[in-house]
Each structure stands twice: as structure tokens, then as C-alpha cells.
């Protein structure tokens, strides 16, 4: 089955760098990691123009 390439055997959990096989644990760690990244962005925002209009113009060019 193709899912076995991407999921842990017998589960529908995607293989991950943390090697977590439990849905709830993975969900908790994903939330924690997302919060950490958001804090980093709030403290040190990325420089540049990231608005939608700019990106749509780049696609059209």
C-alpha cells in the first residue's frame, strides 16, 4: 500500500522527525512547535513584502 511509504505501519499517522506514533502526542507537540515559531516571528519578524497583492503580481509577470 502506498500509505506505508508515508505512514507508520498499521496507522494513518505520517512519519515524522519526532518519531511519534500516537495521534494525541503528535498533536500536542505540533501545537507546541507552532507556538514557538510564532513567538520567534513576533519577536523577530521577517523582512520583506509578504502581502497578497505583491505575490499575485509576481505570478502574473
Automatic annotation (TrEMBL):
InterPro entries: Fido-like_dom_sf (IPR036597)
Protein name, entry field: Uncharacterized protein
Organism ancestry: Bacteria, Bacillati, Bacillota, Clostridia, Lachnospirales
